[in-house]
Amino acid sequence: MHDTLKDGHPEGAGGHKPVKVDFVDFKMEKAFAFDPAKGEKGIVTYTIEEPARISIKVIKAGTRELYISTILNWGVRDAGTHTELWDGRDYEGNIIDLSTAMIIMEGEPMSTYVPGDYSVAGLSAEEIIHGHQHGHSHNVYHEHANIIPGIKVTSVKDGDVLSGLVVVESYLEGERKGYGDEVGYGVRYYLDNTLVQEEFYDRRCNGKFSYTIDTTAYLDGEYTLYVGMCDHHQHVTSRGYRIKIANSPQGKP
């Protein structure tokens, strides 16, 4: 288990100047000490001294940005002590290996929240992802876009045996596209904890993604192939599939 508190971001468009939330009396002892298979819940308890928007997400340990669950998606909380529960499951409802999970918490006081006061006009996808003069103003958006996106992978499923060049196709389901309709998307492909590829799409992709992985670059064996997506405002989702890479004659079925 690992806990991370991220500071506020630099001054953004329209004079927005977010500051960090101070989390006090922070308790994580029961965040991972439970059994999801028995219907038990994990518990995160914290205290804030002023009303704030709070984000609590679960990330796969050993990866840079492979989010596997969202416990609280920028929910508004009053000053005081709060308890958040989670079911130990990923975005697709599968039980997470809690020994490989980390929790990341972020927050911004309501006193600095400016809905919709954010612009990426003229910025490249790399600037949007990796930093620019506005910072990553994740809390600065219209409320209608404050959603957890849903992604579906169409070309890979659990148990697949992959060899050679494999196309991984996915798309965002329904209207759950987050802020990507305005600023685009970042999509990351992992084999277990190894980042295979990171790609940037602008809004013209209409929530459809495709990447060709060369499986010959990896040892034969069993892996979990993950596809993770963000809309550049820390609204994230992912899907993971157990697959086998088999390129050598002895490894093929």
Query: Can you tell me the CATH architecture of the largest domain?
Result: Sandwich
Q: What overall geometry do the principal axes of the alpha carbons give?
A: globular
> How much of the polypeptide forms β-strand, as a percent range?
35-45%
What is the helix content?
under 10%
First-residue to last-residue Cα separation:
38 Å
**Uncertain spans:** 1-16, 131-137
Structural class: mainly beta
The tally of helices reads 2
> What radius of gyration results from the CA coordinates?
19 Å
Number of domains: 2
CATH secondary-structure class of the largest domain: Mainly Beta
Annotation, overall tally of beta strands = 15
Largest sheet: 5 strands, mixed
Q: Tell me the series of helices and strands, N- to C-terminal.
A: EEEEEEEHEEEHEEEEE
Strand order of the main beta sheet, please? Answer: 9-15-14-11-12
Question: What do we call the CATH topology of the largest domain?
Answer: Immunoglobulin-like
Description of the molecule:
It is a single chain. With 253 residues, the protein is mostly beta strands. The protein folds into two domains: 3-140, Immunoglobulin-like; 148-245, Immunoglobulin-like. The protein has two helices and 15 strands. The chain has helices at residues 125-130, 180-183, and strands at 3-5, 23-27, 42-48, 52-60, 67-77, 80-86, 101-109, 151-153, 161-162, 165-172, 185-191, 194-201, 208-214, 221-230, 236-245. The strands form four sheets. Strands 9-15-14-11-12 form a five-stranded mixed sheet. Strand 11 (185-191) and strand 12 form a beta hairpin. The longest helix is centred in the middle third of the chain and has 6 residues, at 125-130. The radius of gyration is 19 Å and the shape is globular. The two termini are 38 Å apart. Residues 1-16 and 131-137 have low confidence and may be disordered.
